[in-house]
Amino acid sequence: MKPQDKHIGGTLNRVDGHLKVTGAATYSAEYELPGMSYAVLVGSTIAKGRIKSIDARAAERAPGVLAVITHFNSPKVPGFTPTGKDPSQPQTVGGRLKVFHDDLVRFNDQPIAVVVADTLERARFAARLVKAEYAAEKHETDMSAGLKQAFVPTQAKKNPKSPVADYVRGTADAYKTGTRRLEAEYIIPTEVHHPMELQSIIAHWEAPDRLTLYDKTQGTLATRRDFAKEWNLPEENVKVIATFVGGAFGNALHSWPHESAAIIAAKKVNRPVKLVLTREQMTTMVGYRPHTWQKIGMSASADGKITAITHEATGQTSSYEEFTESTVQQTRMMYESPNVNTRYRLAALDVSTPIWMRGPGEATGAFALESAMDEMAYLLNLDPLEFRLRNYTDKDPENGKPWSSKFLKECYQMGAERIGWNKRQLKPGSLRDGEWLVGYGMGVGTFGAHRGSSKANVRLLPNGTVVLQSAVTDIGPGTGTAMTQIAADALGLPPDKIRFEWGNSQFAQAPTQGGSAIVNTVGPAVQEACMAMKEKLRTMAGASNAAFASARKEEVVFADTYLTLNGNPGARASYADLLKQTDGGFVTVESKPNGENNQKYSMYSFSVHFAEVRVNPLTGEVRVSKLVSCADAGTIVNQKTAGNQMKGGAVGGIGMALMEAAVMDDRFGRYVTKDLADYHVPVQADAPAVDVLFVNQPDPHVNALGTKGIGEIAIIGVAPAIANAVFNATGKRIRELPITPDKLV
Amino acid sequence: MNQFQYIRPSKQQAAIEAVARDANAKFIAGGTNLVDLMKRGVMAPQKLVDINRLPLAKIEHENGGLRIGALALNSAVADDRQVRERQPLLAQAINAGASAQLRNMATTGGNMLQRTRCPYFYDTALPCNKREPGTGCGALEGINRMHAIFGFSDKCIAVHPSDMSVALVALDATVLVSGPKGDRRIPFADLHRLPGDTPEKDTTLEPGELITAVDVPDGPFTKHVSYYKVRERASYAFALVSAAVALDLDGNTIKAARLAFGGVAHKPWRLQTAEQFLVGKPATEETFRQAAAVAMQGAKAFKHNEYKLKLAPNTLIQTLKNAAAA
Ligand SMILES: Cc1cc2nc3c(=O)[nH]c(=O)nc-3n(C[C@H](O)[C@H](O)[C@H](O)COP(=O)(O)OP(=O)(O)OC[C@H]3O[C@@H](n4cnc5c(N)ncnc54)[C@H](O)[C@@H]3O)c2cc1C
Ligand code: SF4
Questions:
Q1: Fold entry, domain B224-325
Q2: Which residues form the Aldehyde oxidase/xanthine dehydrogenase a/b hammerhead domain (chain A) (predicted)?
Q3: Exposed site from A86, A270, B139, B152, fewest CB < 10 Å?
Q4: Is A6 part of any domain?
């Protein structure tokens, strides 16, 4: 293959870019079906109690209304199996909320009714006419109360090896006896994903036992499984389409009440039902990064070696579902330390269930760990980069295994140089730019280089186009583009001869988009499927052509209309002839991780973020003036989309550090920051031009492509880098995010 | 949204009559505030009287001042050459508000009449005396980070959100109003009111009164001016605290000063005592600190807005420094 034919590592433009910028990409809510009806959810206005009555008469009489569904009249959902017990005893580790199933209110703005009408406006109008009466009970939404009742997650109780179970290396709480020690608490408020696209679904019962969903989901197959189960249907009777997803950041990793509601409504009115959440409902109905309390204890020797770390974390969850995440994982494996222990707990409150939000628990945990690293470096009078180097690990201290690959030191070097780390002063408040204080900070991130198993379908069309199909979704990282590059290289074809189709549960099995695992997992399946198709076509051609029969698949070349052989242009097998044979080269391949490698190696992606901030000493305003993000993510398949991922993550980190917080009035258990005027995410002016640097060294063990994953490490470590820079600028250590002007003034 | 009637008269008198006659009618200009409130169920006018056909969009200079029509767009005013030259403070304040897209829709009259952003006001499931008199003030004992430190009552502690208004009150503007009983002029400082026992009333306008223009008198404040807005992100956020400062300097001596705060009260908060304090003093940081202390007399905080007691004077100092250096 000529070097210019190599697409992996290149900068192919997004294959769907044109569709997206011209508005031709169809998102879930944009499908039009005959007989479409529109649903609007009515939320509870108390946080806990019982629904005594619902007066839906005015709504039902309103123009265009087809149905008002509540727990009084909802069609029975077979999967909402009764507990057999008194329904007033909800289980603590229950499943998803069973919408319109009983009279219990478990959180404020819980869907208690859905209004279906012939237009959206009419549904919205009628929804306002629905009046509920409650028997309210005393609710608890205050984290400080939740912390007092924090408990060990059931998952950890059942399995002491679970990643959320307590972990001890050496002696627990050994930092307490250290001479140079610190103990500090760190708090992350509730943060909301708020992707640009609102959560939306169209539910269409094509037959009484056949359901099609146009749904905003990160996993077409997970959604299919959940709703097949809910309605007691064979999975193949449920079709889920999610071709375009306008961002999700994790909030479409779970199935939510509004999806159940739309399906119930479609059943009731016997028409397709479109349901789009309002921006306000995005805060309460589709998860969030949980409010998390953390404590780090750390001790170190005079020469800057960590002697002990203790990391405790308690995350908020709902009363009906236990949501856990890997908040304390980074502490177990990032730094050499003979004594490390972690404790992870949950605080159940009368709120809806949280869900992973980009970087998820690791990003929350890194804020605590990486802030504490900065605090300890300061205590030791050491440069924080030097402190990290002194505690660098060449193998995974959690399990003693070698890393599959680790180039974090290289990241440190590249990033420090790019930001101008040598300008940083140990003493806070030493640098100024005019009136503004200037500071530098760093934060490290890591995330498991996960790879699951996946299938891919591939076939050749008579015009020489190769079509691949995968159930995987593309929520924005450029999955379709990366897969096109991988297939192009595997087949030696230009990308425009490849058509990668995704986002449909009827395509080949693939995992849910999340956990930075998609290129790692689906990439090899695509690669292997292409190779297998090549071999299959070669054999088919070989049946009537000796040159093909004796050739190796590496020699096969796809020309415009025929197959030929490298170095033997005379050998030709036309696609037309080949495709006359039974299945036209159709191949399905399943690709699995190498279990032996998984046993032998510890696999992680790494990142480091360097921030330069300016702080106004009078007003406490913080501006991130420079941000450098370096990643060791293995092979970079596409410099452009990968760079995009890193930049998006960095900007998300700015939001986390400086402005994002969902604030609740605990008297009502109700959020007061429900729109984008009150819940702040960064605007363009908040983001400097982010400098992205990749080590771009293939990992030899995760998969044949050498990839390790990018999406999460793009944000993990950004918030502490900024918080540490703020400390360096001002001498003020802010341990509760976000760092708003009121905390610095 | 509720059903409503919509009319678009081309005669000013017809528009005024339509609103004066009907207690449930509202003028609509850019709609960027009113439509939001209607969608959220906070306001439910039964009739909208669209005033965009009225000839009220002119920006003129006459009789020693600028006359800015009520329908002049925020972006048009901020970009107007006359405004930038004669009243740069006003241009700065407008540009500190909202986003370019909103400023392209928002009008001068609508901007000054935009309603508070208090989250309790916006959520019909929560108590709010301004939205529903008698239900109680949700913010008083609730989340009151963004709320007032001056001029509040136990019925309402909300703040007026407009940036433009802060500059207009500092610049001694006058609002021109036309109503069923004829025309009148309202000093800008008297347009907005304090909540007292009737927080549902934001302003002193009578039913049916239409703002037709605002007059901004020429003054010496063409150079040493600054509008500084402290907010939680670089743009597109309401002020935690903002300050408008206009100075007339003779060398380093302050001849005259105009000062106002935004984000601290139910109305744009003019600081006359601090202005008087500044006259004749040197434009130094020390003077500014003293003036800021004067400006803060009488301020009182609630549970979550204690920081404003420090942020407000610091913002004023910063703005004074910026203005003196401009
Ligand atoms: C997301 C967002 C962020 C924002 N951020 C800021 C900010 O940072 N700073 C800021 O200052 N503003 C901000 N705004 C508010 C914006 O400036 C106002 O919405 C806008 O100025 C209102 O003008 P309008 O013409 O659209 O008013 P409309 O919505 O049309 O009307 C507002 C009110 O004024 C009345 N009215 C309008 N014109 C007249 C008239 N001539 N006579 C009598 N009554 C009249 C209407 O009846 C209505 O009650 C923001 C708005 C949004 C949506
Ligand atoms: S401060 Fe005013 S607007 Fe806010 S809740 Fe109280 S009464 Fe309503």
A1: Enolase-like; domain 1 (3.30.390)
A2: 22-138
A3: A86
A4: no
Burial class of A363 by CB neighbour count within 10 A (0 to 12, 13 to 18, 19+): buried
CA atoms within 13 A on the CB side of A10: 19
Q: Enter the tokens of residue B119.
A: 């989250």
| Residue A445 belongs to some domain of the structure | yes
The best mutation among B7, B17, B28 to test binding of ligand 1, ranked by most ligand atoms within 8 Å of the C-beta, falls on: B28
Q: pLDDT tens, A187-239?
A: 999 999 999 999 999 999 999 999 999 999 999 999 999 999 999 999 999 99
Q: Using alpha carbons only, how large is chain B's radius of gyration in Å?
A: 19
Establish whether this prediction's ipTM goes over 0.95. Answer: yes
B311·A619 Cβ contact <8 A = yes
Q: Are residues A354 and A382 in the same domain?
A: yes
Which chain A residues touch B125 with a CB distance below 8 Å?
45, 668, 670
What is the chain B residue with the closest CA to A436? B318
Yes or no, beta carbons of A659 and B145 under 8 Å apart = no
Measured CA distances, A54 to A321, B171, B210 (Å) = 26, 54, 42
Q: Are strands A339-349 and A306-318 parallel, antiparallel or unpaired?
A: parallel
In this structure, what is the dihedral angle of CA atoms B264, B265, B266, B269, given to the nearest 10 degrees? -100
State the SS3 of A566-588: CCEEEEEEEHHHHHHCCCCCCEE
Q: Same domain for A311 and A338?
A: yes
Active site residues of A: 712
Q: Which two tokens stand for residue A427?
A: 């003493």
Asked which of A231, A261, A284 is the last residue of a domain, the reply is A284
Q: How far is A389 from chain B (nearest CA, A)?
A: 34
Ligand 1 binding pocket includes B28 (Cβ within 6 Å): yes
Q: Which helix (H) or strand (E) holds B323?
A: helix B308-325
**Beta-strand (E) ranges in chain B?**
5-7, 25-28, 47-50, 59-62, 65-69, 174-179, 182-187, 210-217, 224-230, 241-250, 253-262, 269-270
- CB-CB neighbours of B248 under 10 Å: 18
Inter-chain residue contact A658 with B311, CB threshold 8 Å: no
Q: How far is the CA of B74 from the centre of ligand 1 (A)?
A: 10
Neighbours of A463 (CB within 10 A): 10
- Report the pocket of ligand 2 as residue ranges, CB < 6 Å: B 116, 118, 120-121, 128-130, 137-139, 156-158, 199
Is position A7 within any domain?
Answer: no
Say how many domains are in chain A: 4
- Tens-digit pLDDT profile for residues B233-290: 999 999 999 999 999 999 999 999 999 999 999 999 999 999 999 999 999 999 999 9
Nearest CA to ligand 2 atom 2: B156
Separation between Cα atoms, residue A655 and residue A648, nearest integer Å: 11
Ligand 1 binding pocket mutation candidate from B13, B58, B103, B114 (most atoms within 8 A of CB): B114
Determine the Cα angle at A24 with ends A23 and A25, to 5°: 95
Structural domain that includes position A355? 140-192+288-391
pLDDT at A91: 38
Do residues B189 and B146 touch, judged by C-beta distance below 8 A? no
Using the Cβ of B2 and the Cβ atoms of chain A, whether some distance falls under 8 Å is answered with yes
Q: Is the pTM of this model over 0.90?
A: yes
The arrangement of strands across the sheet holding A104-105 comes to: A104-105, A49-55, A131-136
Give the residues of chain A that fall short of pLDDT 70: 1-5, 82-94, 582, 584
Chain A residues with at least one Cβ partner in B under 8 Å: 45, 121, 124-125, 128, 435, 616, 618-621, 623, 658-659, 663, 665, 667-668, 670, 672-675, 677-678, 680, 682-686, 738, 740-743, 745
- Does the distance separating the beta carbons of A680 and B237 come in below 8 Å? yes
